[in-house]
């Protein structure tokens, strides 16, 4: 720190400590660095020096003493301080004591306002968001795996050091990501960076989940310091940190400060979110230093809503995202850090820390990972975990009961305003009693508290929540499967949280119903009382179902629910209305509707529509919808318009059908969908045979002919071909390109 920075910092803290303006002054030919008027006859005078010699310190002490005598002769009192950057020597201290001058280091002076080292120590004893060991509720001490974060607009990659540099410059940053993607761990690592060095900035980390109902910035800051047991004087001082430009505020979990006033109606839900964030918005508006706020992606209906509700200017804010999953190198480093080098995670399991941590804790994991099927893997994982927990003490709970409890707990979250919980001890006890007919004992309570995929909200909370969407989604699907036939429990429920993509695939696979009429009857039956359940089944059918015949939905209306993704390109359909829903993604690539005007998607909040490039290209069945972004993906028509050779075009289309579209496989005739002439169809047949020969797809017998499935080990390779296209050096692409040169 140079002398100018040192002087300015002392002036900044003098303003914070004394609540007065501070400036340099010349009195009787003597220049003083920092002079503060408290009252007409009461002043504070501070000298600052980087010169650590005894002569310079003594000269400054004598200068301060002279000023004090002069002002005393005028009937005024001057409190004098001398601030050094380093620790003074004993001789310096002795001279200052003789003249009754306060001789302080910069650190000692700053501690008169706030003992930041005490803050660091105290804050480290508390969890930062969800950066905890979910099974114990204790702090997560596993080594940090350096990961990259991506700017939403430019796709520029950021490291922890890059984010810190932005905050040091006073930037406002939003970080979003899915549950378990490492948002809280990012904040924890940033806080360590600020704490482990002589940094001029103060960094404060606030868990927003602890600030429900607070409407003003000073309430949030005061509560934070009160919760850390700081004395009233420091609590009062803490609100001044908002205007201190060297203060960095990091806020964890804008999605965890929800309102008690929940609604399925998009407009009312948006208003509830906006009201709940009033205090956060006030804090963000008043912070004059750097700010980082995190939360779950897609919590808001759109990016513009996010910026508006948080009180941030979109042009002046850096918006970055956690990568949804580990890269291969990051995965290897993480597994090394937790003691499992060389462990290979199957492609269908999310490459997230929480799943890795869970699988790595299972000693029989190699047998578990040997299944070459997504659904068998799920069944094996769930059964094994439940058996393992039951074997700890067979007299308390057996594996079937543990599994049933997990499924019921997952179903309970369907009605929670937070997708993952919280679930109170009382709710846990009620579910236990309903299933076993017994009350919870100390032993069973201990077992319940460590249920797999079920963890503590924090080390200072008795509530629980699910810690991973993969497990939660699968368990929700299991509930729907078990109640599908005798479905009164589903029909009478009022769910607000949806099945995600994995849950939909698992659900449809397990009910094993291929007749469209039966599926439609069930959707219609549920839509009258539990629209969310109807939407889940609809999306599952559109994802996983198979029909070359037109599917008539008989004017079913799906309304007031949440949909993660709806696939309209897989099955020809008609007579369906989706009304007033919040939808993350709609894929209309190669969508076929008959009669033409019989699909209506109206008054919905939609994040992404795939298959068109902008609003002007939206089909007329979108009415009164708000769409945030568009994605002109590689549809058949898009691929055909890019000028590839006939066989190149056929390969890209086949890769898209098998690897990029959801489903358990593709029927043979689905490959030629969108291709009209015989030459194109012949090229498709040649490419399918070539892909089989190169072992990049596999063929199995289905009920109505062959089914073609992806080979998981080739998934990355095929995705790369789709990305690189004409620049690809892949052997398969090169071979196909030669076919077009003939």
Overview of the molecule:
There is one protein chain. With 742 residues, the chain is α/β, with parallel strands linked by helices. The protein has 5 domains: 3-113, Trna Endonuclease, Chain: A, domain 1 (3-Layer(aba) Sandwich), CATH 3.40.1350; 116-322, 3-Layer(aba) Sandwich (Rossmann fold); 372-483, 2-Layer Sandwich (Nucleotidyltransferase, domain 5), CATH 3.30.420; 515-630; 646-741, Arc Repressor Mutant, subunit A. Helices cover 42% and strands 18% of the residues. α20 (469-482) runs parallel beside α22 and α22 (501-511) packs across α24 (531-544). It is elongated, with a radius of gyration of 32 Å.
Which architecture of the largest domain would the CATH scheme give at its second level? 3-Layer(aba) Sandwich
Helix content: 40-55%
Strand content: 15-25%
Strand order, biggest sheet? 7-6-12-8-11-10-9
CATH topology name of the largest domain? Rossmann fold
């Amino acid at each position: 720190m140079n002398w100018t920075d040192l002087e300015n910092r002392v002036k900044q803290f003098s303003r914070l400590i004394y609540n007065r303006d501070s400036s340099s002054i010349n009195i009787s030919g003597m220049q003083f660095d920092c002079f503060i008027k408290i009252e007409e006859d009461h002043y504070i005078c501070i000298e600052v020096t980087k010169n650590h010699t005894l002569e310079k310190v003594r000269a400054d002490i004598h200068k301060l003493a002279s000023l004090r005598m002069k002002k005393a002769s005028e009937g005024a009192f001057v409190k004098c301080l001398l601030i050094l950057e380093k620790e003074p020597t004993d001789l310096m201290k002795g001279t200052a004591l003789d003249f009754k001058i306060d001789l302080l280091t910069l650190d000692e002076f700053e501690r008169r306002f706030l003992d930041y080292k005490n803050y660091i120590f105290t804050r480290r004893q508390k969890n930062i968001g969800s950066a905890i060991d979910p099974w114990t509720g204790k702090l997560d001490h596993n080594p940090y795996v350096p990961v990259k974060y991506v700017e939403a607009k430019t796709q520029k990659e950021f490291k922890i050091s890059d984010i810190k540099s932005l905050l040091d410059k006073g930037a406002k940053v939003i970080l979003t990501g899915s549950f378990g993607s490492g948002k809280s761990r990012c904040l924890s690592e940033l806080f360590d960076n600020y704490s482990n060095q002589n940094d001029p900035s103060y960094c404060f980390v606030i868990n927003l989940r602890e600030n429900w109902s607070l409407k003003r910035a000073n309430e949030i800051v005061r509560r934070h310091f009160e919760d850390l047991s700081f004395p009233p004087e420091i609590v009062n001082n803490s609100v001044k940190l908002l205007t201190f430009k060297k203060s960095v505020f990091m806020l964890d979990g804008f999605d965890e400060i929800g309102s008690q006033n929940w609604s399925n109606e998009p407009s009312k839900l948006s208003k509830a979110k906006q009201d709940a964030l009033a205090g956060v918005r006030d804090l963000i508006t008043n912070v004059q230093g750097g700010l980082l706020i995190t939360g779950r992606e897609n919590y808001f209906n759109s990016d513009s809503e996010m910026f508006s509700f948080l009180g941030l200017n979109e042009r002046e804010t850096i918006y970055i995202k956690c990568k949804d999953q580990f890269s291969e190198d990051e995965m290897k480093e993480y597994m090394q850090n937790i003691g499992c080098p060389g462990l290979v995670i199957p492609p269908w399991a999310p490459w997230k820390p929480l799943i890795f941590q869970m699988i790595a804790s299972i000693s029989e994991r190699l047998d578990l990972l040997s299944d070459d099927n997504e659904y068998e893997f799920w069944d094996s994982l769930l059964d094994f975990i439940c058996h393992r927990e039951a074997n700890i003490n067979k007299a308390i709970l057996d594996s079937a009961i543990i599994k049933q409890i997990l499924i019921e707990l997952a179903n309970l979250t369907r009605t929670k305003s937070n997708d993952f919980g919280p679930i109170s001890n009382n709710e846990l006890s009620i579910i236990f009693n309903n299933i076993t007919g017994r009350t919870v004992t100390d032993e069973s309570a201990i077992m319940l508290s460590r249920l797999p995929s079920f963890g503590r909200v924090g080390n200072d909370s008795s509530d629980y929540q699910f810690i991973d969407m993969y497990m939660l989604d699968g368990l929700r699907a299991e509930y729907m499967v078990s109640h599908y036939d005798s479905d009164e429990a589903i029909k009478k429920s009022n769910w607000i949280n949806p099945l995600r993509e994995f849950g939909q695939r698992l659900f449809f696979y397990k009910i094993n119903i291929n007749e469209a009429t039966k599926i439609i009857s069930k959707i219609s039956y549920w839509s009258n009382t539990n629209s969310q359940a109807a939407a889940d089944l609809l999306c599952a059918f559109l994802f996983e179902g198979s029909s070359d015949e037109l599917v008539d939905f008989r004017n079913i209306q799906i309304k007031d629910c949440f949909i993660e993704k709806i696939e309209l390109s897989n099955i020809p359909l008609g007579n369906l209305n989706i009304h007033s829903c919040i939808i993350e993604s709609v894929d209309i690539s190669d969508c076929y509707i008959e009669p033409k005007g019989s699909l209506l998607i109206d008054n919905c909040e939609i994040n992404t529509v795939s298959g068109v490039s902008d609003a002007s290209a939206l089909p007329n069945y979108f009415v009164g919808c708000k769409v945030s972004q568009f994605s002109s993906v590689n549809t058949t028509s898009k691929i055909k318009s890019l000028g590839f050779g006939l066989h190149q075009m056929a390969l890209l289309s086949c890769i898209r059908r098998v690897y990029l579209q959801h489903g358990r496989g593709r029927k043979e005739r689905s490959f030629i969908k969108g291709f009209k002439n015989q030459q194109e169809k012949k090229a498709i047949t040649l490419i399918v045979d070539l892909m089989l020969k190169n072992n990049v797809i596999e063929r199995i017998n289905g009920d109505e002919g062959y089914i073609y499935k992806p080979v998981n080990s080739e998934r990355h390779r095929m995705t790369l071909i789709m990305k690189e296209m004409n620049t690809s050096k892949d052997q398969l692409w090169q071979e196909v390109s030669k076919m077009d040169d003939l």
